[in-house]
């Protein structure tokens, strides 16, 4: 399937399956893409705004010049996906899975990344700004990422655990 130069609003693609799909020059807003499964698919020059995308699976795919604004992406899977010039802004990415993804061209801004999985991800140059970073998994893969100083306190617990430091609560 190929979609080029369109605007999709209030569509329901929930539970759908795509293989080798390509969406270019598109805007998708206020739509339901929950549990959509896409393999080896691409989004190029796409803006996604205020979409329900809980449990979406975008594996072995490509995201280039894509913006996710105010999207619900909790439990999303972007395993082995390449993200070039991608912005996740104001989105809920709780427990999202970016295992083995190439995120070197991604920015996460004002996102909830609680419990996110970054194991094996390439993150050199990835930017995380004003994000919730509680319980992040695979923090050792974050080498080379830029993290806002105010976000480091929550991330410190995951970093400490990854290198074997036990954090004691003062009683």
Question: What is the element layout, followed by pairings?
Answer:
Layout lengths: L1 E8 L7 E3 L2 E8 L7 E3 L2 E8 L7 E3 L2 E8 L12 E8 L16 E4 L17 E3 L16 E2 L4 H11 L9
Q: Briefly note the structural class of the backbone.
A: mainly beta
Number of domains: 1
Q: What is the strand content?
A: 25-35%
Residue-averaged pLDDT: 96
Strand tally: 11
Low-pLDDT segments, ≥5 res: none
CATH topology-level fold name? Pectate Lyase C-like
For the largest beta-sheet, the strand count, sense and barrel status come to:
8 strands, parallel
- Radius of gyration, in angstroms, nearest whole number: 16 Å
The largest sheet has its strands arranged as 1-3-5-7-8-9-10-11
Number of helices: 1
Based on the structure given, which CATH architecture is correct? 3 Solenoid
CATH class: Mainly Beta
Shape field:
elongated
Fraction of helical residues: under 10%
Short description:
The protein has 171 residues and is mostly beta strands.
What does this 3D model show about the protein?
This protein is 6% helix and 34% strand. It is mostly beta strands. The chain is elongated and about 55 Å long.
